[in-house]
Amino acid sequence: MGSYMKSFAKKFDLYRNVEFGKTVVKFNKGNGKSQWQLAFADDLDSPREFDKVVWATGCFLNPRPIQFKGQDEFAGRIMHSQDVRDMDQFKGQNVMVLGMGNTAGDIAINIVDRADKVYLSHRRGAKIFKRSGADGVPADALLTPASASILWWLEAKMPWLWGKVMDAAMDDNFKQNWGENKPEWGFVQSPSIRDGQYVIVCNDVLIPYVKEGKIVSLPGIKRIAGPRRVEMDDGQVIDDIDTIITCTGYNDDMEILSDVLTFVEGPTGAAPLPNLYMGIFPPEHADSLALISNVHLNGPQIQGRELAAMSVAQIWAGNSTLPSPSVMDEWIRRHNAWLFKRLAKSPGANRGDVKSIDWQTFVHEAAGTGVLDNIGWGWKAWALWWRDSQLYRALAHGPSTGYGLRLFETGKRAQWAGARKAVLDAYEEMQKIKKGGKEVKGL
Questions:
Q1: 133 and 32, same structural domain?
Q2: Are residues 342 and 227 in the same domain?
Q3: In the Cβ-directed half-sphere of 3, how many Cα atoms lie within 13 Å?
Q4: Which of 67, 259, 371, 441 is 20 to 30 A removed from 308 (C-alpha atoms)?
Q5: pLDDT by residue (tens digit) across 14-25?
Q6: At what angle do helices 145-157 and 389-397 cross, to 10 degrees?
Q7: Residues 405 and 392 in one domain
Q8: Are 342 and 349 in contact, with CB atoms under 8 Å apart?
Q9: pTM (2 d.p.)
Q10: CA distances from 263 to 61, 129, 275, 347 (A)
Q11: Which of 408, 401, 360, 405 is nearest to 380 (CA)?
Q12: 360 and 278 housed in the same domain
């Protein structure tokens, strides 16, 4: 990935516009100025002016702290997953990994061959998901642009049915690959995907390791009961623990934006909610400030980030427009009310959650991709199907790629001449993979 980004920057001559190693420590519009004033750590006394700012720091910035009862008694190490770099440091140790997300699963399986014992402590369970079905076909091959659009509609209009469909898909993936999800493992207690509290853990070997006893699944930590002793929620005591790795997630750091954005208080235990239209634009500064990395998406993440960036570029270029401030404020009010209910159920849920169909419709329209118009039920979709059924099939029922975003001329983002061939090639590649899966099944 790093090599690709470097080659991309070199090809399009981006290095001349980039300064590396800069840390912003102050960010405001002071003294009635129209431009943003950014102060950098290496030159605090000389703020620099910028016309527009894109906030793209990601959501994983500040490790979320945790304090155990009796923690001062513990003689071993307690470390956050952010500090886990060298897995060899756990050789010969008894390690307890706390948490039930992708990071916890990845760390647990990667220290199995080094540590003496590995324990995975968690309370809420998770949807454990293998990246492929039993036939070897990647599971995300099912999430085509057409099927994703249907799921987004269900999520918004019939959330109870959407939850059932998604829960069933996750459960079927588990059963196909590993058989019964035994209650004693503690994973089956995961809330429904409908509730927004779910954790989907993509991990191919976690369940096999649990079955083999290489990883022991345990309830949550109740307290530290001695220098090397940990008591679990169910009363059992685990001795000789050398290290506890807390995979408790992160808080997105918006402190530097506290004088720029407005916030509303969230439910008890949840962080304040930033007032952002579509999770991107603060209405009072929509012409010059955009938060690209705040939104938590259902669907392809990389393509979603690209769409957000494309939409910001087209809006600021004047090719697309935002609604009036009053309309944006009303959307924010309704959105925060919806999000408040989700966070009230689970304060740890992502405050960047959005209704997928609203968000996707907005960014596709603003970016000018033309994709949703050409795979839906409108006249453009029927025209494409009639004129070029091969392309329609590949675009609607093939993998979600960035190629499709550059197929159609809409007067906004640039069209790419090679997009059609790239979309067809990606579709053919996926068909070959699916054919191999059918042969595995003997169909």
A1: no
A2: no
A3: 0
A4: 259
A5: 999 999 999 999
A6: 50
A7: yes
A8: yes
A9: 0.89
A10: 19, 35, 6, 16
A11: 408
A12: yes
* Residue 122 and residue 82 share a domain: yes
Q: How confident is the model at residue 265 (pLDDT cuts 50, 70, 90)?
A: confident
CA 237/CA 227 separation, integer angstroms = 13
- DSSP for 228-273, please give it: TEEEETTS-EE----EEEE---EE---GGGTTTS-EE--STTSPPE
Do 279 and 297 belong to one domain?
yes
- Per the domain annotation, does 167 fall within a domain? yes
Q: Indicate which CATH number applies to the domain containing 191.
A: 3.50.50.60
Q: How far apart are CA 96 and CA 76, in angstroms?
A: 11
Rounded Cα gap, residues 53 and 195, in angstroms? 34
Tell me how many domains the chain contains.
3
CA torsion 141-146-147-150 (nearest 10°) is 160
List b or e across 379-407, with b for residues whose CB sees 16 or more CB atoms inside 10 angstroms.
Answer: eebeebeeeeeebbebbbebbbbbbbbbb
Asked if residue 6 belongs to a domain, the reply is no
Separation CA 202–CA 166 (nearest Å): 15
Number of alpha carbons in the 13 Å side-chain half-sphere of residue 147: 14
Residue 188 tokens read as: 């089956």
- 35: containing domain: 22-51
Look at residue 437 and tell me if it is in a domain.
Answer: no
Which residues, 6 or more positions from 106, have their beta carbon under 8 angstroms from its beta carbon? 203
What is the percentage of the chain residues whose pLDDT exceeds 90? Answer: 65
What phi and psi values does residue 269 have, to the nearest 5 degrees? 90, -10
**439 assigned to some structural domain:** no
Say which amino acid occupies 392. Y
Distance CA 117, CA 109 (A): 11
User: Count of residues for the chain?
Assistant: 443
Residue with tokens 């997300």: 101
d(CA 39, CA 360): 35
Q: Return the number of other C-beta atoms located less than 10 Å from residue 250's C-beta.
A: 16
Which amino acid belongs to residue 215? I
What are 43's two structure tokens?
């030159």
Q: Which of 197, 246, 176 is nearest to 441 (CA)?
A: 176
Q: Which residue is associated with the tokens 């960036």? A: 309
Indicate the angle between helix axes 145-157 and 159-178, nearest 10 degrees: 130
CA–CA gap between residue 213 and residue 74 (Å, rounded): 26
Count CB neighbours of 295 within 10 A.
Answer: 22
Tell me, yes or no, whether 312 and 392 share the same domain.
Answer: yes
Q: pLDDT tens digits for 275-318?
A: 999 999 999 999 999 999 888 887 778 889 999 999 999 999 99
Same domain, 178 and 227: yes
